[in-house]
């Protein structure tokens, strides 16, 4: 384990090496609306391994710290060395309470029902997400403290604006709560895909579940 950690000091790079080889599992969704600069997606029920990061520092630091713990988990640190497949994206969420970030990794369909329990020291939690609708804006480059706020603002403005056909794009329940989804390892300098996700409600007739 020690040696592996040293080799993987740039952990996100290891993630890249693995993700380059296999087809990567991602959470399932259907697009229920596509506007010029964002989508509304209905995500199916899903299970995530979640790493709360306290105290709250920066987005960059919290993502690194949380991802490190998830990385150890999927490399068998569940006390019996079972290895899990990498998935994408890695999520970093800021709850509006301001209580620190939560970094999450989607659990492969194989483990949706019963993921291997993580080593307690990693302080990870299994989370079940009910189906939910997300407004999603895509952006390129590296997601960092320097650019995410601009992307979040842009998504909020887009959702609040009426669609091209005059329809509402739903209601943002909690403007202080957002998620950044990152799909690529850190050694990719170009062709990077990131997203901002913000939960929306009020699109009941289009298939979104009532707000929870
Ligand atoms: C992020 O981590 C670096 C290195 O550990 C540290 O120097 C820096 O102060 C941290 N930044 C924040 C905002 O916590
Ligand atoms: C680790 O994961 C394996 C594979 O799912 C499981 O059989 C085992 O019980 C887990 N270890 C612990 C200590 O829970
Ligand atoms: C980054 O991830 C996205 C989504 O999985 C993929 O389409 C894209 O090709 C990746 N970019 C690189 C440079 O691998």
TrEMBL record:
Recorded superkingdom: Eukaryota
The family this protein is said to belong to: Belongs to the HEBP family.
Keywords assigned: Signal
The protein, known as: SOUL heme-binding protein
Pfam entry (one): SOUL
Record's signal peptide: 1-23
InterPro entries: Reg_factor_effector_dom_sf (IPR011256), SOUL_heme-bd (IPR006917)
Coiled coil stretches, renumbered: none
Gene3D superfamilies reported for this sequence: Regulatory factor, effector binding domain (3.20.80.10)
């Amino acid at each position: 384990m020690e040696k592996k950690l040293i080799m993987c000091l740039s952990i996100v790079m290891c993630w890249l090496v693995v993700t380059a080889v296999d087809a990567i599992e991602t959470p399932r969704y259907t697009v229920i609306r596509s506007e010029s600069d964002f989508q509304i997606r209905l995500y199916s029920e899903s299970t995530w391994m979640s790493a709360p990061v306290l105290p709250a520092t920066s987005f960059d630091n919290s993502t690194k710290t949380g991802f490190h713990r998830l990385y150890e988990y999927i490399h068998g640190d569940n006390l019996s060395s079972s290895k899990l497949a990498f998935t994408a994206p890695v999520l970093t969420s800021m709850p509006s309470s301001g209580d620190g970030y939560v970094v999450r990794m989607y659990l492969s369909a194989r483990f949706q029902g019963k993921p291997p329990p993580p080593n307690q020291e990693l302080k990870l939690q299994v989370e079940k997400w009910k189906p939910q609708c997300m407004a999603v804006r895509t952006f390129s480059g590296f997601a960092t403290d320097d650019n995410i706020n601009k992307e979040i603002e842009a998504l909020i403005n887009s959702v609040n604006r009426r669609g091209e056909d005059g329809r509402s794009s739903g209601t943002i329940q909690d403007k202080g709560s957002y998620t950044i989804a990152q799909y690529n390892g850190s050694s990719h300098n170009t062709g990077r895909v990131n997203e901002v996700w913000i939960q929306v409600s009020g699109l009941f007739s289009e298939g979104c579940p009532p707000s929870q």
